[in-house]
Amino acid sequence: MKNTPVPFEIVNRLIKESGLPDVGKASIREIKKLITQIENESGVNFIRMEMGIPGLPPNQIGINAEINALQKGVAAIYPDIEGIPELKIEASRFIRLFLDIGINPEGLIPTVGSMQGGFTAFLMSCRREISKDTTLFIDPGFPVQKQQHHVLGLKYESFDVYNFRGNKLYDKLESYLKSGKISTIVYSNPNNPSWICFTNEELKIIGDLANQYGSIVIEDLAYFGMDFRQDYSVPGKPPFQPTVAKYTDDYILLISSSKVFSYAGQRIGIMAISNKLFNRTFPDLLRYYTSEKFGYASVYGALYPLSSGTGHSAQYALTAMLKAVNENKYNFIEGVTEYGERAKQMKQIFIRNGFKIVYDMDIDKPIADGFYFTFSYPGLTGSKLIEELLYYGISAISLDITGSYHSEGLRACVSLVQLNQMATLEERLKIFHSNHKF
To answer: Whole-angstrom Cα distance, residue 114 to residue 311?
Structure first.
């Protein structure tokens, strides 16, 4: 083993002690734990790209509103499980102004981050009809959503969409829906991890086929408006964040405060259930819940036993942030465009040092610079690459766990890599490249 920025013996021993049979197939949290152990023992600070968490200060508007709410005593009071009225109203306004669609306040439910929103949505959508018991993931995607399915004992299928963009998506998607068992179609837009962004044409295909085959669409908008090639920041004016909600009435949107507001620590998001779906009845829901009404059962049947509501003060924080954005007093996109600059510089550094961008095109345009990008190194599998990079003080996650067909690739999150770390990243990748010339 050649000289590396992190001592070989430390990394090698801690990998063995971790008990992970294959680092490349480890979960995000398992990778995080291993990296922290290596950092603590070696004293070498990693270029940390494994976790998709904010790397910018939290929104001050939210902080001030939450402090004010706490000082008024809300910490002693259980919030209404349906959410405080002010939040539901501002969320409805936000969806109208930035997605150009209408959802009544009753269908806008605060959740403990989009993670809980997804968990609840899966519980409901996969139990509404006995004959429809399988989720279809349009991958690559967020690995934990499949983990949620495993925990819940729910079935799922998936395919990597990269080679089925544009009109090709129709036949590929329909080949799964024809079985009649697909209850739910799930994807993120912009996509975690590839950062592809579905076009309105593709969203129409998804919506039309969901209508034809009776499937619910769950659209994960964790990175709302963060396709920086377009300016989605002006309330009430196009362009609007693209959404399948334009093309189907049976949908659930997962809206997060973690990325665009850098408010991840307070675990507050919105599960937005369409007006039609909220009021639909499904007799098969009575197998699990006391109501056959989708919206009522979502709140009082599925969400209630999960947490009995979402943090009270955090709801006031999100209310204030949405209100400021709705009234054009705060540009929420402008606050996160630095991620795009980080991605641009990091991709150039990787390419200069022998790496390739795995998902490099968005149909006929270069992939946008955003929160994530994907990379590989010729001659190395993804599992081997992620392990090798540990010796160079660089962390990422394998595309293997995202449903990607590209087993050679890794996902990099740019959020924790500061601009003043770019020189360190370049130096370490130069050493890596020098030691890996096949």
So the answer is: 14
The predicted model scores a pTM of 0.95
Reference 54, options 342, 299, 425, 362; nearest CA is 342
The answer to whether the beta carbons of residues 383 and 23 sit under 8 Å apart is yes
* CB-based contacts of 216, cutoff 8 Å, min separation 6: 125, 128, 183, 184, 185, 210, 250, 251, 252, 277
Residues 6+ positions from 364 with CB-CB distance below 8 Å: none
242 has a pLDDT exceeding 60: yes
β-bridge partners, 138: 159
The phi, psi pair for 342, rounded to 5°, reads -60, -45
Q: What is the pLDDT of residues 247-265, one digit of tens each?
A: 999 999 999 999 999 999 9
CA 245 to chain centre: 18
Structure-token match 């990379």, residue found: 375
* Token duo for residue 234: 């002006």
Domains assigned to the chain? 8-45+337-435 (3.90.1150.100), 61-326 (3.40.640.10)
Give me the amino acid identity at 434: S
The answer to whether the beta carbons of residues 86 and 319 sit under 8 Å apart is yes
